[in-house]
Amino acid sequence: MSTTTFDPAHPPQKMLSGSNKESFGYATLQSRLPVIVSKIVDDVYRAYNGLDADPSLDDSTKKQKEQEAKKIIETIGALRYELQRDKPFRPLTDSYPDVKEWNQALETFYSGSSWYKASWLFSECYLYRRIKEAFELSEHWKDYDPFFRQKSIVFKSSQKAVVAIAARLMSPVSAGSASGQDPLQDVNQLSSLDVLISQGPDSKGTQEAFYELAQICLWGNATDLSLLDNPDLAKVEELQRRMLMEKSSSSSSLGSGETLLGGSPDQQGAEGIANDEPTELEKHAEMILTNDLDKLWGKVKSLRNARVDIILDNAGFELYVDLVFADYLVRAGFASEVVFHAKRIPWFVSDVLPFDFDWTLRQLYTGNADGLEAFFDPEDPAEQKAIKDLGSRWRTYVSNGTWRVTSHDFWTSCYAFYHLPTLPTAADLFGDMQKSDLWIFKGDLNYRKLVYDCLWPTTTTFEEAIGPLGGKAPAGRKAAGVPSLVSFRTCKADVVVGLAPGVAEAMDIKAKDWMVSGEYAVISFS
Ligand SMILES: O=P(O)(O)OC[C@H]1O[C@](O)(CO)[C@@H](O)[C@@H]1O
User: Fold this and answer.
1) Is 493's C-beta closer than 6 angstroms to any atom of ligand 1?
2) Which of 29, 120, 444, 516 to mutate to test the pocket of ligand 1 (most atoms within 8 A of CB)?
3) Among the listed residues 459, 497, 463, 444, the one whose alpha carbon sits nearest the alpha carbon of residue 24
4) pLDDT digits (tens, 9 = 90+) for 451-489
5) What is the Rg, in whole angstroms, of the alpha carbon atoms belonging to the chain?
6) Which member of 200, 204, 378, 517 has the greatest number of CB atoms within 10 A?
7) Which E.C. number(s) belong to this protein (predicted)?
8) Cα torsion through 279, 280, 285, 289, rounded to 10
9) What is the ipTM of this complex?
10) Nearest CA owner, ligand 1 atom 5
11) Ligand 1 pocket, 124 CB below 6 A?
């Protein structure tokens, strides 16, 4: 394959790079990535110390595993050193299927280059690929995910929001039915989004549910572990509050028994909260700096039994809200097939691997079956049931083929998504994705790869910035076989497009780190 037309080193605008000391790329290479790498060492130590307690290993395998763990720890330490001293990149030496493509790109575009000189995107992707190499060169640790422990801890700490959302979706109709009103006549009387959605694709309830769940899906991207390089669980909880339909004047803790996600007007009145108070979710709508939800709704409402592809980002809570949104699309009749694209190798700390997907569903539907301790253990039996029912429904989607999880090496390559339609090694992926009616890209890294991670003026249109995937592509998006697409992204890198004139300047005054803090977001539709 010739890589000359697939160039990760020369994006259409000046590339983001760690060579600029003012950039977030520099800060990431300088302080965040070394911490992430050190945590891998800690994790392998812990795994290695736990080997003795593993009854499935015979003595000789245990010994081999221990020796390999020591080697991995050494290799990861050396990798941190290379990064911190800005040593030149070296070719990969394992035999994972993508190695040839990586080495070709290194040789063609980055020969003699190094972490701070190359594009930030390339360096960061290369780092995660080198981490994979350290494990891949072993016999017993090839499939080990050094980030799984962190993913699981943070997901567990998301219980309050997980439960609140499950209850919002699944709990039975409350006030409307209790007051004898026909709940389907008055959507405000309903506590269950499931009931709203079941009114059919053209109903007001389905539309309201769309706006709420799409924003929940967006803000799920705020809690990823690569940004929280020292995950502070209280911070995770705080970030998740924004997804709830709580009134903003309510207390700042998610204590049990409080009215989460709305509830009936009566309930709110009883708590002394005026109905016209904005909810947390509504308040945060102002933080979506370019918001194409209306355009997305225009597309979604035209779909019937369509195929929707979701290019996943993080495991844990973000995956959970992605599944909530996918569930909505199916329940409302818009989609009959949802394809989830996961990563094949541990990536940017918390990205979803196929294993994470299955594991997440299991934690939900298993509950405390067989007397085992449930992963989520809300005291209220109705909440326990809501989680279990939701998980069981999702398991059925997987077993009957409504939901499919897939993965491809393209998502962990060094290439921007500009190259998806033409990169020979992605031809099978692109061919399959062309059968879809809508692509939903989650998260910051997917956004960076969509817009080629370069310094576009912030008023550049999204259509233009995504090049061949956009409507402004020379052949036109449709001719190129690309369906409508949307990006749900909280901003964690110093690139953003699609802003109205003056917005970036106003933000610079309002919040210096608005581009990278994860506090602000964009929803961009093409
Ligand atoms: O999980 P997300 O939203 O893709 O975020 C990953 C992003 O986090 C960061 O590590 C934040 O610096 C970026 O390098 C990367 O783009």
Assistant:
1) yes
2) 444
3) 444
4) 999 999 999 999 999 999 987 666 655 556 889 999 999
5) 23
6) 378
7) 3.1.3.-
8) 160
9) 0.95
10) 444
11) yes
Q: Is the CB of 492 under 6 A from ligand 1?
A: yes
- β-pairing, 484-490 with 521-525? antiparallel
- Identify any residues that bridge with 441 across adjacent strands, giving them in sequence order: 311, 487
Instruction: Please tell me the distance between residue 390's alpha carbon and the centre of ligand 1 in angstroms.
Output: 29
Q: Which of 154, 227, 230 to mutate to test the pocket of ligand 1 (most atoms within 8 A of CB)?
A: 227
Nearest to 464 by CA among 17, 12, 15: 12
Q: Are strands 403-407 and 438-442 parallel, antiparallel or unpaired?
A: unpaired
Provide the b/e sequence for 152-185 (b: ≥16 CB within 10 Å). Answer: bebbebbbbbbbbbbbbbbbebbbbeeeeeebbe
Q: Are 267 and 175 in contact (CB under 8 A)?
A: yes
> 91 burial class (0-12, 13-18, 19+ CB within 10 angstroms)?
exposed
Query: What does residue 489 show for φ and ψ, rounded to 5 degrees?
Result: -145, 130
Report the distance separating Cα 276 and Cα 253, nearest Å. Answer: 21
What is the C-alpha to C-alpha distance for residues 54 and 69, in angstroms, rounded to an integer? 15
pLDDT at 1 over 60: no
229, two tokens: 């390089």
Distance 218 CA to ligand 1 centre (A): 14
- Ligand 1 atom closest to the Cα of residue 446 is 4
Q: Which of 158, 185, 183 is nearest to 171 (CA)?
A: 183
Contact 344, 407 (CB under 8 A): yes
d(CA 327, CA 488): 17
**Phi, psi (deg, nearest 5) at residue 5:** -90, -5
pLDDT tens-digit series, residues 369-409: 666 678 998 988 888 889 999 999 999 999 999 999 999 99
Torsion, Cα of 261, 265, 269, 274 (10° steps) = 70
Residue nearest to atom 10 of ligand 1 (CA): 226
The number of beta carbons lying within 10 Å of the beta carbon of residue 31 is: 10
Distance between CA atoms of residues 417 and 335, nearest Å: 24
Separation between Cα atoms, residue 244 and residue 298, nearest integer Å: 24
